[in-house]
Automatic annotation (TrEMBL):
<keyword id="KW-0406">Ion transport</keyword>
<protein>
    <recommendedName>
        <fullName>Fluoride-specific ion channel FluC</fullName>
    </recommendedName>
</protein>
<keyword id="KW-0472">Membrane</keyword>
<dbReference type="InterPro" id="IPR003691">
    <property type="entry name" value="FluC"/>
</dbReference>
<comment type="function">
    <text>Fluoride-specific ion channel. Important for reducing fluoride concentration in the cell, thus reducing its toxicity.</text>
</comment>
<feature type="transmembrane region" description="Helical">
    <location>
        <begin position="105"/>
        <end position="127"/>
    </location>
</feature>
<feature type="binding site">
    <location>
        <position position="80"/>
    </location>
    <ligand>
        <name>Na(+)</name>
    </ligand>
</feature>
<comment type="similarity">
    <text>Belongs to the fluoride channel Fluc/FEX (TC 1.A.43) family.</text>
</comment>
<keyword id="KW-0997">Cell inner membrane</keyword>
<dbReference type="Pfam" id="PF02537">
    <property type="entry name" value="CRCB"/>
</dbReference>
<keyword id="KW-1133">Transmembrane helix</keyword>
<keyword id="KW-0407">Ion channel</keyword>
<feature type="transmembrane region" description="Helical">
    <location>
        <begin position="36"/>
        <end position="55"/>
    </location>
</feature>
<keyword id="KW-0812">Transmembrane</keyword>
<feature type="transmembrane region" description="Helical">
    <location>
        <begin position="67"/>
        <end position="85"/>
    </location>
</feature>
<keyword id="KW-0813">Transport</keyword>
<keyword id="KW-0915">Sodium</keyword>
Amino acid sequence: MTRLISIALVAAGGALGALARWGVSSWVSQRFYGAIPWGTFTVNTIGSFILAFLAMSAEIGLVSPQLRVFAAIGFLGAFTTFSTFSVETLGLIRQGQYLNGFINIGIQIITGLLFAFLGLIAARALWTSLLKH
C-alpha cells in the first residue's frame, strides 16, 4: 500500500468517524442529558469495542491492511475522543461537581476496558466459528 493510499484512507475514515461521532454524541446527549456526559461515554465505549474487535481480527489475519488503516486509524481515531472526555471531566470538577467528575472517570475507564475485552472475545468467537465451517 502506497503512502498516498494510506493518507487517503486515513482522511476518508477520519471524515466519516468525525461525522459519526458528532451524530451519535449529539443524539445520545439530547436523549440522556444528565450530570455525566453520556454522548462522549457512548462513542468511547462503542469505539473501544470496535477497535478491539478489529485488532483481534487483524492479529489473526482477517482484516486487510487497508481496512485497518481506514477503520482503526481513520474512522475510530476521529470517532473516539480522549480529549473531550478530559475537558468534560475537568469541567465537572471546576463546577464543583467532584463526585460526577470522578464517576465519569471511573465509568469511562472501566467501561472502555470492559468493552475492549468484549470486542476481543467477540472477534475470537466469531472468527473461530467461521473458520471451523
